[in-house]
């Protein structure tokens, strides 16, 4: 990539941030003269990018808000990163029409078609070397995520049916945040009927409608929406505490998809805290450990775990 093209991409990246930059700041960041900055800004305008400038010694540059911007130019690393992200994450659901996985697969095909030949060959080479594990996760409609995001931004109430097992309830909420946690999408909202904060699995939402009623944002009863989701997930589960005979980094490698806290005890011992629905779920987690461990809590689950291990040892669990 030529120096001019690289500089133009760097300038465009700076101008796309929410802040505005003085000419002196752009000179310093790009390592060019003020005359070159003015020339590059004019070149961007000729390409159709709406760069606004305020006059005077302290004048600033920035992209005009609310204006359409031509398609972005990507450098080699950015283009390949986008292709890899789409290829890897498209395996996260069934890929049926309307799902996130299907949208990612379509996006991959479209981006692949418009890549320059040089980048297309590079992306295809890397794609052919990639294997992505397919996770069995609930299918989430991209239309629902888009509608919820729009309602959150515009502060419109949402109305929907919420399915939990065989029970379906009608909800009217003030949406606050969408959260992606442990391969699931969640909506954090103020439930108007229950007058309390609730978390909803997006894949369980049906008949979603955006109401015309607006609302004022309420302060969250936690530092982040993710904290609320975790507390909701953990509400019906128990905390399990395990001491593993391995350093924290090794434990993290053995349990890559667990929401847990790791407390190093020594160079080869780590205390793990996580939440489980029951002893069977804890047993599944323990089966991924390749080193010795000791369950500190809950002790009342130990008889079932010990009995199961005994049956496995004598083969009766396999009959």
TrEMBL record:
GO terms for molecular function: DNA binding; DNA-binding transcription factor activity. Keywords: DNA-binding, Transcription, Transcription regulation. Residues 4-59 form the HTH deoR-type domain. PROSITE patterns: HTH_DEOR_1 (PS00894), HTH_DEOR_2 (PS51000), WYL (PS52050). It comes from the Bacteria. This is WYL domain containing protein. The lineage of its organism: Bacteria, Bacillati, Actinomycetota, Actinomycetes, Micrococcales.
């Amino acid at each position: 990539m030529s120096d001019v093209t690289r500089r133009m991409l760097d300038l465009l990246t700076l101008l796309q941030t929410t802040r505005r930059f003085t000419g002196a700041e752009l000179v310093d960041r790009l390592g060019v003269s003020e005359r070159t900055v003015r020339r590059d800004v004019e070149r961007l305008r000729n390409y159709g990018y709406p760069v606004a400038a305020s006059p005077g010694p302290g004048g600033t540059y920035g992209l005009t808000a609310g204006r359409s911007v031509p398609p972005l130019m990507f450098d080699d690393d950015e283009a390949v990163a986008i292709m890899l992200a789409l290829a890897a994450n498209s395996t996260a659901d069934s890929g049926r029409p309307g799902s996130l996985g299907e949208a990612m697969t379509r996006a991959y095909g479209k981006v692949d078609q418009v890549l320059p030949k040089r980048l297309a060959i590079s992306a295809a080479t890397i794609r052919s070397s990639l294997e992505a594990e397919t996770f069995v996760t609930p299918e989430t409609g991209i239309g629902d995520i888009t509608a919820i995001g729009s309602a959150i931004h515009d502060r419109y109430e949402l109305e929907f049916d919420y399915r939990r097992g065989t029970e379906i309830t009608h909800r009217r909420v003030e949406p606050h945040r969408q959260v992606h946690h442990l391969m699931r999408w969640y909506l954090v909202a103020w439930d108007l009927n229950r007058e309390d904060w609730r978390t909803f699995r997006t894949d369980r939402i049906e008949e979603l409608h955006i109401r015309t009623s607006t609302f004022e944002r309420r302060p969250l009863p936690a530092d982040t929406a993710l904290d609320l989701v975790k507390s909701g997930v953990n509400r019906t589960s128990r905390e399990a505490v395990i001491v593993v005979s391995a350093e924290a980094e090794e434990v993290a490698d053995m349990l890559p998809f667990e929401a847990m806290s790791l407390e190093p005890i020594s160079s080869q011992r780590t205390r793990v805290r996580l939440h489980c629905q029951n002893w069977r779920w804890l047993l599944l987690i323990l089966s991924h450990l390749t080193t010795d461990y000791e369950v500190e809590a809950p002790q009342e689950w130990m008889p079932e775990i010990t009995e199961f291990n005994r049956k496995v040892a004598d083969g009766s669990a396999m009959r």
